[in-house]
Amino acid sequence: MAIVCLVFKSISTTSLLRKGVLIGFIIYVFTLSIYFFFFADGNYYDKTPSSFQGVLVIVLSILFFYEQIKKPDTLFIYALPEFWYVTAVFIHAAGTFFIYIFAAFWLQNSANENDYMNIFGSLSILHNLLIAFATFKQYKDPLLSTTSKPITA
Amino acid sequence: MFFLQATTSTNVTYVVYFGTFGMLLLAVGLIVFIVIHQRKVIYFQLRMKKMQEEQQQMMLQASIESQEEERQRIAADLHDDAGPLLATVRLYLNENLIHQDQATQLQSIYNAKQIIDDTIQLIRNMSHSLIPPTLKNFGLESAVNDMFQKINGSGSISASARFHDYKRRLKLDYELSIFRVLQELVNNTIKHSHSSFIHLTQNKTDQYIYIRIHHDGEGLTQTEYEKLRDTPQGMGLKNIFSRVKILNSKILFEKDPSNTYYKVTIEIPIEAML
Question: What is the ipTM of this complex?
Answer without folding.
Answer: 0.77
